[in-house]
Amino acid sequence: MIPACPLAALPRGEAYRLDVEPPIALFHTEDGEIYAIDDTCTHQDASLADGWLEGCEVECPLHASRFDLRTGRVDAPPAKLPVRTHRVVVEDGTVYVVPSEEPPNLPPGIRAGTA
Amino acid sequence: MRSIAVVGASLAGLSAARALRGQGFEGRLTLIGTESHRPYDRPPLSKEFLAGRMSEADLALEADDEDLGAEWRLGATATGLDPSDRRVLLDDGTSVRADGIVVATGASARTLPGGGGLGGVHTLRSLDDARALRSDLVKGRRLVVIGAGFIGAEVASTARDLGLDVTVVETAPTPFAGALGAEMGAVVASLHGDHGVRLICGVGVRGLLGAGRGLAGTDRADGVQRSEGAGRVDGASGPEGVDRVEGARAPEGVDRVEGARAPEGADRVEGALLDDDRILPADVVLVGIGARPNVEWLAGAGFQLTNGVVCDAGGATGVPGVVAVGDCAAWFDPAMGYHHRVEHWTGALRRPAAAAVTLLSGGATAPDPPSSPYFWSDQYGMKIQFVGHARPGDTVTVEEGDVADRSFLAVYRRQDRPVAVLSLNQVRLFTRWRRRLDAVPNRTDSTLRSEL
Ligand SMILES: Cc1cc2nc3c(=O)[nH]c(=O)nc-3n(C[C@H](O)[C@H](O)[C@H](O)COP(=O)(O)OP(=O)(O)OC[C@H]3O[C@@H](n4cnc5c(N)ncnc54)[C@H](O)[C@@H]3O)c2cc1C
Ligand code: FES
């Protein structure tokens, strides 16, 4: 379990990028849920924390593929692979991430560990 | 509606097929496409794919397990449309009849009149074009890019990265003036100089030179130099101090690689002759002078064809049961008040959903107002993003960052109202602005003003 940020640093509607390898994006939805997914889009090198949060989905800031924060599923091209999701724990005002053990779906040209 | 034929099997056609299935259409669906390839993504053709960082498999637009339950007629070209029973005629002599038709035939790269036939001269629209160009981009060669639009600029950037000596020539005094306005157009065009690429503006290309052939194109090229909105300024002279470019030094950092020169031959390009009689020596030429909608096949079938298939704000054409989407279509744009052909990837992705509604409802359901047009470009490692419409006379203010740092966000305003946003390497902030422009009903100027 990695401490990510104080809960106060992640207001509703906002995102936070955790600089681990590969980076993880945290989102606090307008409904008050917090989700964590890999930050790098599965299409190309875009940071999903820079994306457009709407409901339980984030739209990639570059080419508009949308990822479901709960499942990592992608709705439409150009991204074709889901993004990895991570478990989130909030304890004593701190947000923690439990990194997934699945292999990440990093875009071509970005190797695992160098993203 | 029991059967639908989609003509053009690329981004707009595939998106239309997906939207039709997504909206519950269960009938017979046929996709017809000239190219033998399954739908693939074009933007990387001038960027990652050309640079060798992306493979052909990475370009696929379909997911591995995707099945639209459609019949694919790849390698078949539509040659006509018979509106009397809504029949698409194909080049192999067969035809496809359907209750509904989606026209999604996209656009083709414009070519230089008279420039054909010389080796080493390329345009870039398809995967096959990209393969051919890629094999010609050998380190140390001299590339001349004709046209400083987005595709030309991206190819210049990729080729520079691959170690070529690159010169870009543009007829207009300022590149991107149509899309970004003159002020910001000049800023984005200055990226070439930052990276050792020569940019020559305000002069047209008279023709191409090839060994033993002299001038390959005696027609003036400027008649076609205009991509939408970019006018030609006659008599504009090149930047001061640049005259004879023949034998010009390679920009620093480009090694002259022996043997990099293209093989000599009677039919290989050797240079470009400019309107002011300068000659730019070239081993490879990329002609990037815009695209032309593929609508000839619809001639005489009752469509209004003026720079694309003219459609209403929901994609309906003048022919009942036929909608048009993507680069071939000029939809009515409520925000602008006129028909407008948009050549943006996101338009080809999103608008087909509205066109599917139009087709399946027989035009009874009004489409949602369109989101503001958005496009991106990647040049010299920078992320360039633009949303909205720029017009001459808009005031432009840099709201974040600094133009000199090549990291900034600029807002275009018309009567104090934000109408467009340009950013370089400001992805996060750009997303917020894009959302803000989109959140506003796009319909009339007065509602816009009261909400922002
Ligand atoms: C090199 C390149 C880089 C680009 N980069 C960007 C970018 O960075 N950002 C951006 O926003 N946009 C970019 N674009 C634009 C974007 O790719 C287009 O807007 C998009 O491809 C339009 O999709 P479309 O399906 O309408 O047309 P197209 O992709 O042109 O597809 C049309 C298809 O129809 C087929 N066809 C044509 N005529 C017929 C016929 N008679 N019968 C059957 N089939 C036919 C064609 O062969 C083609 O496969 C780029 C385009 C290119 C070429
Ligand atoms: S980088 Fe995310 S969709 Fe392209």
UniProtKB/TrEMBL annotation, chain A:
Q: Which UniProt keywords apply?
A: 2Fe-2S, Dioxygenase, Iron, Iron-sulfur, Metal-binding, Oxidoreductase
Which Gene Ontology molecular function entries are recorded, alphabetically? 2 iron, 2 sulfur cluster binding; dioxygenase activity; metal ion binding; monooxygenase activity; oxidoreductase activity, acting on paired donors, with incorporation or reduction of molecular oxygen
Entry keyword annotation includes Manganese: no
Q: SUPFAM superfamilies, alphabetically?
A: ISP domain
According to the entry, every stretch annotated as the Rieske domain falls at 2-97
Pfam families in alphabetical order:
Rieske
List the PANTHER family hit by this protein, alphabetically.
3-PHENYLPROPIONATE_CINNAMIC ACID DIOXYGENASE FERREDOXIN SUBUNIT, FERREDOXIN-RELATED
Question: What is this protein called in UniProt?
Answer: 3-phenylpropionate/trans-cinnamate dioxygenase ferredoxin subunit
- State the species of origin: Streptosporangium subroseum
Lineage of producing organism: Bacteria, Bacillati, Actinomycetota, Actinomycetes, Streptosporangiales
TrEMBL record, chain B:
By its UniProt entry, which Gene3D superfamilies does this protein fall under? 3.30.390.30, FAD/NAD(P)-binding domain
Q: What residue stretches are annotated with the FAD/NAD(P)-binding domain?
A: 3-213, 265-349
Q: Which cofactor does it need?
A: FAD
Keyword presence, Lipid biosynthesis: no
Query: Matching InterPro entries, A to Z?
Result: FAD-oxidoreductase/Apoptosis, FAD/NAD-bd_sf, FAD/NAD-binding_dom, FAD/NAD-linked_Rdtase_dimer_sf, Reductase_C
One Pfam family, short name? Reductase_C
Q: Which SUPFAM superfamilies match?
A: FAD/NAD(P)-binding domain, FAD/NAD-linked reductases, dimerisation (C-terminal) domain
Q: Which domain of life is it from?
A: Bacteria
The alphabetized UniProt keywords are: FAD, Flavoprotein, Oxidoreductase
Q: What is this protein called?
A: Pyridine nucleotide-disulphide oxidoreductase
